[in-house]
Each structure stands twice: as structure tokens, then as C-alpha cells.
């Protein structure tokens, strides 16, 4: 019975972690470029009370094994495409397909994002909403009156007095062998990890990379209805484990009252 108390406790802790991931998904249902997380469970060690018989040996056909509960082993992200939302802002870029924009953080290291709400900084460079510069760096002339970003990442601007648009550069997209292995650090940013593989940057539309859609943003891929169903299932699982603790406590109480 003491084993039952501990097993049920591990189940409740695991369901609390699952609830945390659901809460974070729902909190970011309207976050640009957010990718939902899930919680994956695994069973814990087993104690063999009676082993199964070997060939020609003694013992029963099956063993007696008692488990010790469950735990959350991973919280992977789903990088499925989010809903494309039209905004009309020329510096809003939705990524259709695979890939990340590369940005340079304050400490000089690289990070990666799917949030394409870009701006023009005080120095004329194209930056994220947090002021992080996009790589490769692209500067917009102060006299530019219109910015056009092609699906292949080519950035052009119309300059008064010039008949043809001026090429400002080309935005690139970065792929990873295992994007689910990226580490999220907040602010819609991810950083490389040992599980993600090395970044592979290049022209949009090549080698499995997606393309840009100007004047739009990619919403989160959180399905609120699905998260609510998961919330109900998690709550019920938590309640069931709490009932196991209550039942074990009642059995212990009965045992201690024996005369």
C-alpha cells in the first residue's frame, strides 16, 4: 500500500507537468510564430517479484512485476504550419514551409525565430520587434518609400527619382536536421542545441526551405479546442491518481485499526 501512495504521487506530478504545457500553449494561442508543446510520458522501473520460467526451467509462464509510476520524459514542439494572417504591413513576413529567420543577440550569438513582425531600426537595419538585427544584415535607405520582399527573400525598395527599384539584399532561411531539438529561450527565439544539429542557411525555396509571404504573419499552431480536450483528460487523470491515494490511505487506516 505504501507503494501505491508513491506510484500515485508520481502520476500526479506527471499530470501537473502536462497541465503546465497546456497552460503555456493556451497562453500563447495568439503569439506570432509560436509552436505548441506536448508532454511525453514513460513508465518507471519495475520490481520483479517472481520471474518467468526459462526454457526447461522452473517457474510460471509469466513474471510478476510491479511498476513504480510514470514521469514526463520530453516536451517536444510541433513545428507544423500555423495559420497565415494577412496584415498589410510590408515588413510583416510569414514563412510558408520550413525554416527560421536568423537574428544576432546582444551578446553576439545567433538565435532563430519564426516570428516575422519586422521593423526598421534607428540605424536603418531591418530588426525584430525586440530590436535584434536580422542576418544577413539589410539596411533600408531613409528616403525609401516602399519596400518589396519577394517570396525568395529578395528585398527591394523604391527610391524617389529612380525609375527601377533598388536591391537591398536577400533574406535567408535556416533549416535544422531536427528542429524539435532547438531550445526555446523566450521572446519567440530558439537557440541551437546538440540535438538540433547545425544550422543550414540559404535561399528560400531551396533544399527544403520555405518561402516568404509579404504583408502577413504566421499565427501559432495551437488548436484551442484540442488543448481544452487535453485539459479535461489531464484533470481526470489527476483526479484518478488522487483517488488511488485516498483508497490506499483508507486501506492503511483499516489495517492500523485491526485488533
Lay out the secondary structure.
Layout: H1 2-27, E1 40-43, E2 46-50, E3 64-67, E4 70-74, E5 84-86, E6 93-96, E7 101-104, E8 110-113, E9 119-120, E10 126-127, E11 133-135, E12 146-149, E13 154-158, E14 166-170, E15 173-175, E16 183-186, E17 189-191, E18 200-202, E19 211-214, E20 216-218, H2 224-256
Antiparallel strand pairs: 1-4, 2-3, 5-20, 6-19, 7-8, 7-11, 9-10, 12-13, 13-14, 15-18, 16-17
Strand order of the largest sheet: 8-7-11
The arrangement of helices and strands along the chain is HEEEEEEEEEEEEEEEEEEEEH
Secondary-structure-derived class: alpha+beta
Bin the helical content: 10-25%
Q: Which parts are unreliable, with pLDDT below 50 for 5 consecutive residues or more?
A: none
Report the major sheet.
3 strands, antiparallel
The tally of structural domains comes to 2
Number of strands: 20
Give the overall form. elongated
**Amino-to-carboxy terminus distance:** 19 Å
Mean pLDDT: 92
Output the number of helix runs.
Answer: 2
As a percent range, the share of strand residues is 25-35%
Radius of gyration: 27 Å
Could you please describe the fold and organization of this structure?
The structure is a single chain. By secondary structure, the protein is α+β, with helices and mostly antiparallel strands. It folds into two domains: 2-48 and 68-78 and 222-256, no CATH class; 84-218, no CATH class. 23% of the residues lie in helices and 29% in strands. The chain contains two helices and 20 strands. It has helices at residues 2-27, 224-256; strands at 40-43, 46-50, 64-67, 70-74, 84-86, 93-96, 101-104, 110-113, 119-120, 126-127, 133-135, 146-149, 154-158, 166-170, 173-175, 183-186, 189-191, 200-202, 211-214, 216-218. It has a three-stranded antiparallel β-sheet with strand order 8-7-11, with no helix packed on it. A three-stranded antiparallel β-sheet has the order 12-13-14, with no helix packed on it. Helix 1 runs antiparallel to helix 2. The mean pLDDT is 92.
